[in-house]
Amino acid sequence: MKMKKQLHLMARLKAKIYDKHGLTLVEILAAITIFAILAPIIWGVLVTGQKIYVKQSTEVQFRDDADYVVTLVMNEFYSEPFNYVEKCGKNCIKIIQSERTTLAPVEKDSLKYYEVEKEEITAEETRIEIIEENGKTSYKMNDQILETESDFTGSTLEFFCPNENKKDEKCSSGIIKLTNNMSQPGKTDQSLTLESEFGF
């Protein structure tokens, strides 16, 4: 008896599946109710995922721009010898090379050796500054703007010299500090501030 009921139920379900008359009102209402419950959840997950993606990619861009700027500034300090650093205004420093060191071969009493000679040269300078141009704040090195996605409004560039001669403010060794306050106006409200320091 039970078996007959199950077969009869299966036959009715099979007939319903292959029925070409469409859905009943109850089935349509059930589908709409389920969709109304699930749609806001799915939409919320998608919107949250999109916001997290934008936030993460913007932060990665900020960090890339800061790394790019700091690396180029460090390269200016470590790639070529220099004599001192001096200020040239707010958020502006100059790296000055005013003398060159050379080795001169000396022969004396059958001895051969080298003497270190310092030679005065026309001062060569590398200028690093933060400027605002065309509504965007950027770093500028030797009259060349460092192209980045980020705007550096509010950033600072300074150096600290423990043995600084206050008379002429020339510093032969100290610490360079870059405080990069980055934003992307027009794209996102997000901003990020990163500080970098290195010695010279």
Automatic annotation (TrEMBL):
GO BP, one annotated term: establishment of competence for transformation
Membrane spanning residue stretches: 21-46
Gene Ontology cellular component annotations, sorted alphabetically: cell surface
InterPro entries, sorted: N_methyl_site (IPR012902)
Record's keyword terms, sorted: Competence, Membrane, Transmembrane, Transmembrane helix
Cellular compartments annotated: Cell surface
Organism classification: Bacteria, Bacillati, Bacillota, Bacilli, Bacillales
The protein's name in its UniProt record: Prepilin-type N-terminal cleavage/methylation domain-containing protein
Pfam families: N_methyl
